Amino acid sequence: MRTVFYLMAALAVMGLAFWSYQENYKTRDALGEVRSLHAQIGANHERLRMLRAEWAYLNRPDRLSDLAELNFDRLGLLPLMPDAFGRVDQIIYPLPDILPIIIPIEVNSAPVARGEDAL
What are the phi and psi torsion angles at 34 (to 5°)? Predict the structure, then answer.
């Protein structure tokens, strides 16, 4: 009986050792993937900073005004003036559409009986 118990305990230890070995490598793979994702996130943040800097550079007011002057014949863009803006109360909002009745409703013209049934 002891040998069976020792044999079962040894098999259980080997099974647990194999399981922990597998979990160790799964964890290492997951950590490697996390490191890779962190590196990608960092690279994307750096790219986003660069794109924002390029956008700010390309949207300089003096550059845009020069471009508007160069392309005035084609685009007809004028510089913004304070009198070009209106007030909110000058905006005319469209009225909502009134929904038409699509399904006709039939009305029964039979007289209503007074008495026990009329409740």
Answer: -65, -45
Average pLDDT over residues 4-26: 94
Token pair for residue 111? 């007289």
- With a CB cutoff of 8 Å and minimum separation 6, the contacts of 107 are none
Alpha-helical runs (H) found in 1-119: 2-58, 61-70, 72-75
> Model pTM?
0.48
pLDDT digits (tens, 9 = 90+) for 26-49: 999 999 999 999 999 999 999 999
- Helix, strand or coil, per DSSP, at residue 41: helix
The span from the CA of 72 to the CA of 57, in Å, is 22
Which tokens belong to 34? 């996390």
DSSP, res 92: -
Q: What is the rounded distance in angstroms from the CA atom of residue 77 to the CA atom of residue 66?
A: 11
DSSP 8-state code for residue 95: P
> CA distances (Å), 57 to each of 10, 46, 54, 70, 72, in order?
70, 17, 5, 19, 22
